[in-house]
Amino acid sequence: MLYPTPIAKLIDSFTKLPGIGIKTATRLAFYTIGMSDEEVNEFAKNLLAAKRELTYCSVCGNLTDEDPCSICTDQTRDRSVILVVEDSKDVSAMEKIQEYHGLYHVLHGLISPMNGVGPDDINLKSLITRLMDSEVNEVIIATNATADGEATSMYISRVLKPAGIKVTRLARGLAVGSDIEYADEVTLLRAIENRTEL
Ligand SMILES: [Zn+2]
């Protein structure tokens, strides 16, 4: 396409975002250059600040701007239970319903035998380390109801159960293949309440 280089580059950047095709990227690029200098500055600043200031909690793996994160350091939370999720978006989904008051562990992925992703490729070792010398007596696995979610759940329960830790799984209120991130609050709440022991 015969656009001046700066806009061609901007379009190219937008196409790198998930779900953005060339048409939408072009529309966004033209919209962006129509914005005021102040708005563009603010946009660019937020982008850089988010990247620079955010890190992953060294305890639970959640996205945070302070390490350990505010959930891990919150002494009012129930330290006897850890809810294991695939990514930080799932933590937000859970926190939104305000019914879960325990701790989290973010895996940053799922075990996927089909794609050659093993236990060492996700943030799982640190969960096991965390459980040694801790007051945790229940681990709730809240991975999505997909094949990879199931494989991950099975692996974790197989590793933890011999250590005497109660391992539970969110109830099947969630449809197979559905995302915790997009589940409505009632469904999510019911899934926690009706969790089953593995
Ligand atoms: Zn944390």
From TrEMBL:
Keywords associated with the record: DNA damage, DNA recombination, DNA repair, Metal-binding, Zinc, Zinc-finger
Zinc fingers (C4-type), renumbered ranges: 57-72
Any GO BP: DNA repair
Gene3D superfamilies according to UniProt: 3.30.60.80, 3.40.1360.10, 6.10.250.240, RecR Domain 1 (1.10.8.420)
MF-aspect GO terms: DNA binding; zinc ion binding
Keyword Metal-binding assigned: yes
A family per Pfam: RecR_C
Domain of life: Bacteria
Toprim domain span: 80-175
Function: May play a role in DNA repair. It seems to be involved in an RecBC-independent recombinational process of DNA repair. It may act with RecF and RecO.
Similarity field: Belongs to the RecR family.
PANTHER family: RECOMBINATION PROTEIN RECR (PTHR30446:SF0)
Protein's UniProt name: Recombination protein RecR
